[in-house]
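Anyone have C-alpha cells for Fe-S cluster assembly protein SufD? Sequence:
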Amino acid sequence: MTTPVTTPANSMPTKGDRFQSTDPAAFPVPHGKDEDWRFTPLRRLRGLEDASAGKAAPAARPAVTVDTGDQAGVTYSELAMDDERTGRAGLPVDRPAAEAWVNSSVADHVLVAKDTVLEAPVTVTVTGAGDDVTTYGTTVIELEPHAEAIVVLRYQGEGVHSDNLEFVVGDGARLTAVVWEDWGRTAVHLSNSHILVGRDATVRHTVATFGGDVVRSVPHVRFAGPGGDAELLGVSFADSGQYFEQRLLVDHSVPNCRSNVLYKSALQGESGRHGSEARTVWIGDVLIRPEATGTDTYETNKNLVLTEGARADAVPNLEIQTGEIVGAGHAATVGRFDDEHMFYLKSRGISDEEARRLIIRGFFTDVIRRVPVEGIRENLEDVVEQELANTVL
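Reply: yep, here.
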C-alpha cells in the first residue's frame, strides 16, 4: 500500500506532500545527510533504521494491555493489518515505520461508539520485551461522530520498539490523548503518529517524554473537514545521555480550522564526557494550503538548559499559501534561567537552589495545566518532581 506524492499542476511539492508507504523497500535507509534524519543519532537506534535490529533474534510483539474501565460504548479488538480500518489517518512516512507495519501481526484497535461520552480514561499500556529485544506495533484509536473520550497511551519497560499510531476522530467528536514515554533508561523508540481531525472535531494531544535512551516521534495532523481544532502539547526532561526528538507537521488543507502547538523541554547533561550530553530536537512544520482560508494557527517551542553539556535545537517552519487567514505565527527559544525571575525570588529570601526549582516547576506547569484530567496532571507533576530530585542546580 503506497500513497504517492501528489501536488496540483504547476506547483512545487510542499512539506505536506509526504511520500507514504507500507513497503520498507520504498524508502531509502536513513542517512545522516538526509534532512529528516540529520539530527538523529543513527548509530544509537540499534538497527531500527535499517531493519538489522530483528536479525539477531526474531522481532516480537510487545505486551499490550487495554483498560476500558468496563465502560459502555468502548470496545477493544485486534485487526488484521490489511483491514480497511487501518491506514485511514495515514501510512508510514519513513523506513522504520514501514518495518513496523509489515512486522505487526495485528493492529490494536480502540473504538468509541457514536455519541458515547466516556467518564473515565481508557488506558493502553505497551511494555517492552526486554533490553535488546526488538518489537513492532500498530495502534488505532477511533472516535465515531460526536463521541468524547480520554485515551492514555503509556510506554514502559526496556526494549527496542518501532510503531505506528493512528487517531481517527470523527465529525463533532472530542479526543484528549496523552502519549507517555515512560520507558526504562536504555530503551529506544521510533514512532509515526497520524491524527485525522473530522469536521468540527476537537483533539487535545499531549506527549510527555521522560524515559528512554533515544525517543523519536513524528506526529502528522490533517483536517478532514472545516471547523477542526487541534492542540498539540509536549513536555520532556532530558538527562545526561538521553536524546529526544519531536518532528511534527500540522497540515491545514481545509477552511476554518485551528491549531495550537506548545512544546517545552528542560535539559541537564555532563560537560566534557563522551556520550553524556543531553539533547533535544524539535522540528515544527505548519503548512497552510491555498484552500485553507480562515486558518488560525500558532506554534511555540521553549527549551530550558540547566547545565553545561546540554543542547536543544528548535526549528519552527511556517509555510503560508493564502493570505485569507485569521492568524499564523511561531516562536522558539533556547535559554537558561531568567535573571529577573531569579532576582524576584531571591529578594524574598528564597535560596538559589529552591528558586531554580520553582522556576522549573512553573516552566512545565504552563503545559501540564492544559491537560483536562486531574489524575494525569498529578502524575505528570510527580514525574517532574522526581526529575527535580535528581537535578544538579
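The chain has two domains: 2-336, 338-393.
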